[in-house]
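Is this the right way to post structure tokens for a design question? Let me know if I should format differently. Anyway, here goes:
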């Protein structure tokens, strides 16, 4: 490589077709990010591979442009392997939309993109003693990037709203006793509609997120049915701003869901104070998340403040279940109920008690 000592710039190798017949030479070039984005301009390439992320997003843009197919040939391929210690940078977000890993690895808006997250548990070659030593050192030298190095999740640093210790907060899914209190939070929206259900153990006062729901671009009746299927008797809190928005029929969003039989309360409270409260609950062990709520867990991993204004939540991020959790916590004291309480109320309605304030005795028998 011209200008770079002890570095190969290009080599050729013999290429054979599937029948073993020599059909020409393959050419492989090397470039460094330090050469700048202009060096990545040029002719079409069939394969481009990145090792770690470039500092300049233009390098990624120029490389992807080199993969265009021409003369009837298919487009080329791109592969990037890196540890996301630099957080939510362009290469990471190109394949991980909003920082949330696609469920099956395929980008939801571009099927040509695929992402595979690889953690320590996926490698049989790492020694447990070596892992423990690395983590001990990283706790001192780079604590914000431990999860990025061990699990492949982008580092958030001080920008995370809920920097939880997942081994402490996430618990196995368990059967909920009938005397535990339940409530849910709703974050309505046409494109993204999120609901999170929370229960509380009255003995320990510990809250558990035990179920979640997220859908979009469907009629609101489908959302109402999904909520009712989890228990029509359970009350919930709704985003106070969305609650009062009018629908095409003239009724409000809250009014529509109440007409469907749901019991809702506008979750009016200071969002910043609620987030501080939820973070304190996570840190103290007062709030846990059952491991079946993977959507919420993924959102918490990426839920972040605006880097340009750390006092505000970043816009255009996947946070609908995080908001729903906040609304549930906000109204829990007022809307929560246990299934046993529900059954008792049902029984009371069907079997009204005698009202001693009125004399209902038979005037002839005296009874």
């Amino acid at each position: 490589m011209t200008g770079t000592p002890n570095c190969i710039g290009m080599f050729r190798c013999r290429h054979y077709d599937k029948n073993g017949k020599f059909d020409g030479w393959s050419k492989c070039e090397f470039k460094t990010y330090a050469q700048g984005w202009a060096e990545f301009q040029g002719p079409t390439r069939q394969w481009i591979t990145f090792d770690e992320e470039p500092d300049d997003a233009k390098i990624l843009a120029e490389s992807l442009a080199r993969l265009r197919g021409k003369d009837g040939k298919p487009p080329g391929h791109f592969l990037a392997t890196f540890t996301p210690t630099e957080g939510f940078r362009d290469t990471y977000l190109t394949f991980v939309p909003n920082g949330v890993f696609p469920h099956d690895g395929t980008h939801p808006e571009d099927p040509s993109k695929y992402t595979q997250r690889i953690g320590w548990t996926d490698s049989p070659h790492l020694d447990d003693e070596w892992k423990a030593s690395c983590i001990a050192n990283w706790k001192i030298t780079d604590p914000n990037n431990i999860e990025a190095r061990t699990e492949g999740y982008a580092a958030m640093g001080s920008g995370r709203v809920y920097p939880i210790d997942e081994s402490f907060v996430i618990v196995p899914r368990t059967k909920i006793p009938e005397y535990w209190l339940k409530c849910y939070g709703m974050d309505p929206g046409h494109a993204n509609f999120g609901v999170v259900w929370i229960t509380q153990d009255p003995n320990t006062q510990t809250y558990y997120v035990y179920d979640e729901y997220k859908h979009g671009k469907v009629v609101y009746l489908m959302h109402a049915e999904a909520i009712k299927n989890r228990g029509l008797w359970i009350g919930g809190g709704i985003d106070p701003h969305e609650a009062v928005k009018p629908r095409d029929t003239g009724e409000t969003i809250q009014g529509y869901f109440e007409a469907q039989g749901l019991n809702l309360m506008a979750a009016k409270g200071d969002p910043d104070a609620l987030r501080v409260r939820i973070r304190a609950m996570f840190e103290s062990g007062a709030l846990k998340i059952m491991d079946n709520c993977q959507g919420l867990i993924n959102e918490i991993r990426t839920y972040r403040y605006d880097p340009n204004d750390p006092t505000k939540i970043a816009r255009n991020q996947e946070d609908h279940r995080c908001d729903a959790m906040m609304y549930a916590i906000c109204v829990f004291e007022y809307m929560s109920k246990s299934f046993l309480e529900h059954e008792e109320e049902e029984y009371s309605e069907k079997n009204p008690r005698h009202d001693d304030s009125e004399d209902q005795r038979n005037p002839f028998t005296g009874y």
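Format looks fine. Someone answered above. Worth noting: The chain has two domains: 10-122, 166-350. The longest strand covers residues 206-215.
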